[in-house]
Amino acid sequence: MSTARVKRTPPPSGLIIVDKPAGWTSHDVVAKLRGIAGTRKVGHAGTLDPMATGVLVVGVEKATRLLGHLALTQKGYDATIRLGQSTNTDDAEGEIIATLSAADVAEESLRKGVATLTGPIMQIPPQVSAIKVNGERAYKRARAGEEVELKSRPVTVSAFEITDIRRHGDLIDVDASVSCSSGTYIRALARDLGADLGTGGHLTSLRRTRVGPYDLSMAHTLEELSADCVILPMADAVAAVFPRRDVTAEEASSVAHGGRLPSLGLGSGPIGVFGPDGMLLALVEEHGGITKSLAVFVS
Predict the structure, then answer these.
(1) Dihedral pair phi/psi, residue 235, rounded to 5°
(2) What are the tens digits of pLDDT across the range 234-269?
(3) Taking every annotated instance into account, which residue ranges of this chain make up the domain tRNA pseudouridine synthase II TruB subfamily 2 C-terminal (predicted)?
């Protein structure tokens, strides 16, 4: 009996917008989608904690080269913050390490606290985070009992809006909608809001509603993807996020081989370059009057 494997046709390159379930790591989702899509070339843009649900952008085949650029886009979240308790992870997955009554916190004080955390701010990431400290992930050091010293870094919270306030004795649950820059920790916002109010605080639920232009209306559950693996073509994915530049056949040939083009003043970030037939050729950036290739998608 022959043991030769049947070679599967690789899927088209593109993005899969997943509605991640609670309890799954982002790596779990990637592993599942490798089986669904039938390829090892799968990656994700912007990790979601296991507790969190919502939009996870996954790249398939050549689209994995887009992920580092997509991860830098604006994100949106719906969150619930519990005031009156602090945990060692700044979320509900950790152990409660302090309890201070929030019963006397007035709504006006709460809204002022949220306003203080809106706009350009300096934020210290959670101890249990994936940031590397001396070459090792902070969460590994923290879980080994080490006190990890993380530096504050600039992030931008463009919107932090309270949508509901619920009081439960000494505790307050605050529902909020947040729009923020890449690298912002919603757990840290919960921690810092509690600290500012003198009650402590942690995150009890988190749902990512948007990554750049990709929102929940475009997302599919893993069950839905198992039945029909919807892949957003790379050309559509790039055109939705980055400025577009259409080139001639001659320019397309040059770009395909890593050639440079004169700048057109399209911006400082990535630019999608498309051939006369509408095919995505490359991501480039403008620098010093010319373009420089970030990723080339044709061979």
Answers:
(1) -60, -45
(2) 999 999 999 999 999 999 999 998 899 999 988 888
(3) 242-297
DSSP-derived secondary structure letter, 268 = S
Instruction: Please identify which residue in the block is written with the tokens 């395909």.
Output: 256
| β-sheet bridge partners, residue 116 | none
- Which residue, chain included where needed, has tokens 């201070």? 100
Beta bridge partner(s), residue 137: 132
Asked if 273 and 245 touch (Cβ cutoff 8 Å), the reply is yes
Q: How far apart are CA 109 and CA 165, in angstroms?
A: 13
Domains located in the chain, CATH noted? 14-73+212-235 (3.30.2350.10), 75-211 (3.30.2350.10), 242-296 (2.30.130.10)
pTM of the model: 0.88
Cα dist from 44 to 16, 27, 114, 117, whole Å: 9, 8, 30, 28
246 as an active site residue: the answer is no
Q: What is the side-by-side strand order in the sheet with 290-296? A: 244-246, 271-274, 280-287, 290-296
DSSP for 184-246 reads --HHHHHHHHHHHHTS-EEEEEEEEEEETTEEGGG-B-HHHHHH----EEHHHHHHHHS-EEE
Q: Which tens digit of pLDDT belongs to each residue from 179-203?
A: 999 989 999 999 999 999 999 999 9
User: Which is it for the CA torsion 138, 122, 178, 175, positive or negative?
Assistant: positive
Q: Pairing between strand 271-274 and 244-246?
A: parallel
From 19, 49, 91, 192, the catalytic residue: 49
> SS3 for 121?
strand
